[in-house]
Amino acid sequence: MLPANEVLAPSWPTHAGDIMSINRLAVGAALLGLSLLACESRAGVLPPEPYAWQTVPFGGGGYVDGFLYHPKEQNLLYARTDVGGLYRFDFAAKRWLALLDHLGKPDSDLMGVISMAVDPNDPNKIYAACGLYLPDWARKGAILRSSDRGKTWEKADLPIHIGGNADGRGSGDRLVVDPKNGSVLWYGSNKDGLWKSTDGGKSFAKESSAADAVSLVAIHPQNAEMFVGSADGKGALLVSKDGGSFKKAPGTPELVPQHIAFAKDGAIYVTFAQGDDKQPANPSYALRGAVWKRDASGAWSEISPLRPDSNAKFGYSGVDVGPDGTIAVSTLDRWAPGDDIFLSHDGGSHWDALGARAHHDAAPYPWLVNYTRGEDHMGHWISDLKINPFNHDELVYGTGYGLWMSRNLSAASVNFDFAVANLEEVATLQLASPPSGPVLLAAFGDVAGAAYSDITKTPASGLFNPNTETNYSIDYAGRLPSVLARVTNNDPTHGFTSNDGGATWLAFGSTPYPSQEGKREWHSPGTIAVSAGGKALVWVPEKDAAYFSLDHGKSWKPSAGWPSQREQALVPVADKAVEGVFYVFDRPSGSVLISVDAGTSFKTVVNGLPAVQGWETAQLAVVPGRMRDLWIAAPYGLVHSPDSATPVTNMPDVTSAWAVGFGAPKVKGAYPAVYLWGKVKGQEGLWRSDDQGANWSRINDDAHQFGGFSAIAGDMREFGTLYTAPHGHGLLAGRPGK
User: Fold this and answer.
1) Which residues are CB-neighbours of 623 under 8 A, at least 6 positions away?
2) What b/e string do you get for 356-365 counting C-beta neighbours within 10 Å, with b at 16 or more?
3) Does the chain have fewer CB atoms within 10 Å around its N or its C terminus?
4) Residue 197 to residue 403: CA distance in whole angstroms
């Protein structure tokens, strides 16, 4: 029999008995059940420790749905995203600056920005309409305002929801400052009508029911006409000369207005798109659309470059007019032959398709070369575009995976750069930092993920392929970190293993994840865990039982003793020190279950913990390199169960815990550093303890809260380094020091 701490070779046993022979002596005592006792540590709060935070570059990866140049100030450009906040472009450094990192967990929904506005007469002022979702369970929306270009913010909460990540979010903008009176702002809501502020955005009141569902609000800079895009019914463009009474613009179509642009010669250009009755168009679902113009005489006419028909259904979205009079419009959801941008130099009488003569430089971002299969095309979900009002050669437009910026729009051959430096919007669903091999593993929504060997560079190798799908989970073998497993949404068996740290992957031979086609409620592939020696896998699809595999995913069997409830997602966790040992926190019953037979069966090992219900956050984590050393982050605090013989400890000063992770110790060979996202003595923050939770130092500050995190993981090789998956913000690394 091998010693319990011996590293196993990366071969795969054929039955659980091979693993049990290794584990029986090492973990047999772990089956002793322990309840939460009244044993409490005496934690303390140490002085904050300054940390420097930087993005771990991947390169875009998310939907950028809006842009705004200041009309009178050069080199002042903002971009909004549906889930990742608001950015300002640093023209000198050619990188984006995140402006909403100050938002904490209670305001994390405000990372969804549906609209932004500048005061045309004060370049220092910027406003943002923020909120993620429209159902009642979501946080209600707010209008944020800044007088220093987004360095600091004040907030006006609204009594209504804002859908920054809802259907229709690509239209707009819905927020506007009156060009003749900077104290007056208008906001058109997703479903609650038109709102007005007369005190510079400090408060808002419902002003008009011109439309319940508003797609855009704009004020003509020359004659103060006000335009509202209605998404009610079939849609309409409404106009008012007094800011109160609205009428349909004569002759315009019954379609939903998407964007509007005003030319210096008095002309107005509007794009329209429409889906079916149940799905607001933009960024998806557009089935028809048009481009319309009102000339200087007031006459409206259609000037669409192409008209949708039964063979090609699409809409129009982005529109702008450059300082030289160039008009640019974008198609929306033209899946074949693909979306494009059209340019006109004669007021819309003639159009030129830009895609045929555009060249996009994706080379600095290898994932994007893979994502586009090496082809050069304009991209999808082109909801918005803008031309620099001081540089007619600079056009910026967004896609579902990032943004492109031109250098020479007036040239015969137009060059675009993927200008996403520091604009990281991938949704990180899980991450891990192994003790050897890849520095960082990350599973991403939509664009797969990567195994990083260098966190200062966008990965040129280690990309998870195909990278046009969502990876829900990634894990490594604690004693053989080159062995990895991940689960995905599109592949036939929905999972892969790797024996070389992610350099190559082998698809599972079968899957327990049932087909989701035709199901009324979609369930994700869930979470996977890899045993310490890399010989066993435990996979738990969402709202399903646990399944284990002892043959690299060739076959799967259900685990006995798995909790029967299916409504709450249960996450398997592998012991990183002992082969074949897995755990799960059964949140509704307040108990921890253990398997010592490679996932074949589970039994209760800790009970008596408070139940965690509904959507409340809870996480079970095991300390790498230490047998059965468990921590639980839960709404009621932080719990530690170091072994089967020690009473379970509740950290008294940790009032709420949302995520816990571990990293290299301060002194080699000592207990690992413990990282916490939660509240210590009522203060929210990221925290580090170097003495098993006896004392805590806050390692972020109020300006760096990032809206919350889906995961955190300490670096097991470098003391003090913490990796985080912030809200719609890719990956961040924090290190001690300013």
Assistant:
1) 576, 629, 630, 631, 662, 671, 672
2) eebebebebb
3) C
4) 32
Q: What confidence tier does 393 reach under pLDDT thresholds 50, 70, 90?
A: very high
- For residue 355, the SS3 value is helix
Residues 6 or more apart in contact with residue 122 via CB below 8 angstroms = 182
Decide if 475 contacts 433 (C-beta within 8 A): no
Angle at 473 between CA 576 and CA 365, to 5 degrees: 115
User: Of 65, 94, 69, 70, which is closest to residue 81 (Cα–Cα)?
Assistant: 65
Of 160-174, 241-255, 660-674, the one with minimum mean pLDDT is 241-255
Backbone phi, psi, residue 366, to 5°: -55, -35
The three-class DSSP label of residue 592 is strand
Question: CA dihedral in degrees (494, 499, 500, 503; nearest 10)?
Answer: -20
3-class SS of residue 574: strand
- CA distance linking residue 389 with residue 221, whole number of Å: 14
What pLDDT, on the 0 to 100 scale, is given for residue 727?
A: 83
Task: Supply the DSSP symbol for 625.
Answer: T
Residue 23 pLDDT > 90, yes or no?
A: no
Angle 234-235-240 from CA coordinates, rounded to 5°: 145
Q: What is the pLDDT of residues 269-298, one digit of tens each?
A: 999 999 987 778 999 999 999 999 999 999
Return the amino acid letter for 531. S
Instruction: Encode pLDDT of 433-473 as tens digits.
Output: 999 999 999 999 999 999 999 999 999 999 999 999 999 99
Which of 259, 340, 278, 273 shows the shortest CA–CA distance to 308?
A: 273
Q: DSSP characters for 122-141? A: EEEEEEEEE-S--STTSPP-
With cut-offs at 50, 70 and 90, classify the pLDDT of residue 43.
low
Specify the residue for token string 């468990």: 630
Length of the chain: 738
